[in-house]
């Protein structure tokens, strides 16, 4: 596909990069697969802690999506393997009033997303381009929410908390938009 056709898929103000930039608030974290754990908690009927194998044993999906960083780079047709957020929801059974989710990470990062968006377009991924996700990009497991700016996709995912109220995360309390829709160019608040 030529660059003009590709740019038709671009949200306003974004440019295409063929590289895969790394953006982290601090140093990259190294979490070996065999020491990985994900705690799913808050307003759910079945809170649980999943290890790496537990996650990989769940029904898996191949995801091809465009990703859009608030710093204006977009990367088209990125390929991931992982689990739909919906699968996690079926396991833990959130309460009726659990309308918000906070992702927490091993580096202390947090980001918040309405459950409705995650049910439509949220994933926990453990492969990029058929290979384990590199440390710098959030392996062994990161969140992926293609519809929102990429800061909403938490790397080194360590916890998922279901809440009855919204709870702004690391960038959302530092001037970034709470809703983060690239199509509406919701960059800053
Ligand atoms: N745990 C964690 N997740 C994070 C971040 C971070 O600093 N820590 N940075 C966010 C930001 S601002 C962006 S743009 C993307 C960058 O992901 P990448 O480094 O794989 O490109 O990760 C997001 N997820
Ligand atoms: Mo970012």
Task: Report the span from N to C terminus.
Answer: 35 Å
- Can you count the helices? 4
Q: Major sheet: size, sense and barrel closure?
A: 6 strands, mixed
Radius of gyration: 16 Å
Query: What class do helices, strands and sheet pairing give?
Result: alpha+beta
Shape by Cα distribution: globular
Estimate percent helicity. 10-25%
| Amount of beta strand | 25-35%
**Low-confidence sequence ranges:** none
Please give the number of β-strands: 11
SSE topology string: HEEEHEEHEEHEEEE
Q: Could you report the average pLDDT, rounded to the nearest whole number?
A: 96
Chemical compounds bound to the protein: the ligand Nc1nc2c(c(=O)[nH]1)N[C@H]1C(S)=C(S)[C@@H](COP(=O)(O)O)O[C@H]1N2, molybdenum atom
Q: Would you write up a description of this structure?
A:
With 189 residues, the protein is an alpha+beta fold. The protein contains four helices and eleven strands. Strands 1, 4, 5, 8, 9 and 10 form a six-stranded mixed β-sheet that branches. A hairpin with a 4-residue loop joins strand 6 (100-105) and strand 7. The termini are far apart. The mean pLDDT is 96. The structure holds ligand MTE and molybdenum atom. Molybdenum atom (MO) binds next to loops.
């Amino acid at each position: 596909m030529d660059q003009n056709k590709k740019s038709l898929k671009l949200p306003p103000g974004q440019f295409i990069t063929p590289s895969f930039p790394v953006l982290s608030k601090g140093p990259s974290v190294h979490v070996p697969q065999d020491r990985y754990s994900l705690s799913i908690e808050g307003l759910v009927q079945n809170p649980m802690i999943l290890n790496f194998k537990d996650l990989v044993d769940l029904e898996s999906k191949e995801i091809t999506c465009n990703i859009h960083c608030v710093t204006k780079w977009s990367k088209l047709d990125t390929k991931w393997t992982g689990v739909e957020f919906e699968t996690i929801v079926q396991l833990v059974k959130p309460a009726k009033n659990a309308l918000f989710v906070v992702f927490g990470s091993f580096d202390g990062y947090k980001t918040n997303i309405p459950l409705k968006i995650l049910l439509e377009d949220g994933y926990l991924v453990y492969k990029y381009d058929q290979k384990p996700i590199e440390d710098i990009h959030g392996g062994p497991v990161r969140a992926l929410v293609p519809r929102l700016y990429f800061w909403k996709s938490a790397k080194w995912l360590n916890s998922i908390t279901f809440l009855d109220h919204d709870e702004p995360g690391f960038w959302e309390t530092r001037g970034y938009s709470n809703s983060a829709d690239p199509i509406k160019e919701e960059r800053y608040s």
